Fold:
Amino acid sequence: MEVPGLAHNITSPLSPCEGMIKDLSLDSIQLCERDGDKSQDGSMEELPVPQNIKISNITCDSFKICWDMEARSKERITHYFIDLNKKENKNSNKFKHKDVPTKLVAKAVPLPMTVRGHWFLSPRTEYTVAVQTASKQTDGDYTVSEWSEIIEFCTADYSTVHLNQLLEKAEVIAGRMLRFSVFYRNQHKEYFNHDNQMMPSVKDNSGSHGSPISGKLEGIFFSCNTEFNTGKPPQDSPYGRLRFEVRADVLFNPDTNLYFGDFYCMYTAYHYVILVLAPRGSRGDDFCKQRLPALDIGNNRFLTCKQDEEGGLVFHHAQDVILEVIYTEPVDLALGTVAEISGHQLMSLSTVNAKKDPSCKTCNISVGR
Structure:
């Protein structure tokens, strides 16, 4: 079977969608600079229009596509023109330049056909797709059918395969392990006055665009990083002047499962690793088991809980990354203490809805960012 190759900026009549410029890298798409022209020759039977388009096997950077066709002139089909575009966002910047649509030109291989390419497919993104059948003529031009109906679909989150790739990259720069004894969370006074419990909330969209926990996992963000010279939490925070501190063993112990969630940066030298702490058998634990790489709590490069010779628990965190730890269950304020920090509230360090730098070679993998 001949596999479809690469197409860039193919123009074909009556394109049904508008989209974006993409540097395409399909196994199945090839470069073609010819324009497709609907046959004006009444003596030649028109090519069949693809019907009942079906999208399946959707991942973060690929999908399978198939359709039905009438038998007439089917033997004349040499290529398929695929018009693939990001679905327009109603809230997009109206002053930003319009993106130019790109057509993928694939050789007529047996269906279903796999479309794969991380340069033009991003995770968690809505797309529109339409198809033409085409017949390449002896002079190099194409005779094409009418466009099919437009189908919409959304690409998937990162799989555990992709997350394991991120995990391996994060391990490279994690650095040595430092001892710590408390988890802490900074917020404003109103937050702690609201209730005697801190309740989980849905994680924002910070970090990798394909992260399976963004907008889905419920939890409470904690920090555990310490200053290497004091061994204590830093006195500055971007999130508020009041700090809740809780002993590490309250949230992290042998009855807790630990998962790797994400690795990212925000156009700075700092890199962040998101970890998830989920009590064994909890709803959060069930969510993470299906989606995230599990870590050995006593042997990993980011956050460890080990038993010392006297039977107590000892905790360490990685020095060279900033850990964002999500605890998936409610936390009673009576389990810890709330006090005001002596440092500054550094708003510039906030990671709320922070966008990942797509150009960083340290924390990106070869799929949609």
Notes: DSSP finds four helices and 23 strands in the chain. The longest strand covers residues 126-136.
